[in-house]
Amino acid sequence: MEPITIWWIGERAMAPAVMERVQQELAQAYGVAVRCAEPPGRPSGTWDPKRRQHLTSRMLSWLLQVGPPGGKLLGLTDQDLFIPILTYVFGEAQLGGRVAVASAARLREDLGPGGEGLFMERLVKESVHELGHAYGLLHCQVPRCVMTRAAGVRDVDEKSRHLCPRCRHRLTEPGRSRHAVE
Ligand SMILES: [Zn+2]
Ligand SMILES: [Zn+2]
């Protein structure tokens, strides 16, 4: 399993404690080395003036272009992301590929008494989820598996930050299917 690099590519600063938490949880979820590093700049050419959001496919292209040649790369951002068929997405990844992106933009909705702790938990789940796609995992139907599809923050809150045993097994299975996924 390849190591993971995390870049903060958002506009505003992100608390180091949040980045460290994501780093620790990814290391635990995938059993690989995870490091936070400085990106060479911020993504360009991703803004869609009509939607007033950033197109995730262009974010992924940018990460591929400027990212390190080996390992997995997760870009974390505070910018709102979309794909043409959906109002917004929490993130996107290249299935079985090198790059993934996750957004914090919608993760503060309905935080309630959970506050920043809940926000951090959501970002961890979305990060583990997108990296799962980058390691070749598809969406999962097992309740509470982190690879279940989330259409809103309530879905994110309902799942755990862990891979179910089947997803965990698939991670190490050679020649698993690599169909396209959103
Ligand atoms: Zn997904
Ligand atoms: Zn699963």
Q: Can you walk me through this structure?
A:
This protein is α/β, with parallel strands linked by helices. It has one domain (4-171): Collagenase (Catalytic Domain), CATH 3.40.390.10. The protein is 32% helix and 16% strand. The strands form 2 sheets. The chain has a 5-stranded mixed beta sheet, sandwiched between helices. The chain has a 3-stranded mixed beta sheet with strand order 3-4-6. The two termini are 23 Å apart. The relative contact order is 0.15. The model has no long low-confidence stretch (mean pLDDT 94). One zinc ion (ZN) is lined by residues 129, 133, 139, 149.
User: How would you spell out the order of helices and strands?
Assistant: EHEEEHEEEEHHH
Number of strands: 8
Largest sheet: 5 strands, mixed
Distance between the amino and carboxyl termini: 23 Å
Average pLDDT value? 94
> Which structural class best describes the helix and strand composition?
alpha/beta
CATH top level label: Alpha Beta
Shape, per Cα inertia axes = globular
Strand content: 15-25%
What is the CATH-assigned architecture?
3-Layer(aba) Sandwich
Helix content: 25-40%
How many domains would you count in the coordinates? Answer: 1
- Uncertain runs are none
- The whole-angstrom Rg is 15 Å
What's the CATH H-level superfamily name? Collagenase (Catalytic Domain)
- Small molecules in complex: zinc ion
State the strand order across the main sheet.
2-1-5-8-7
Could you say what the CATH topology is called?
Collagenase (Catalytic Domain)
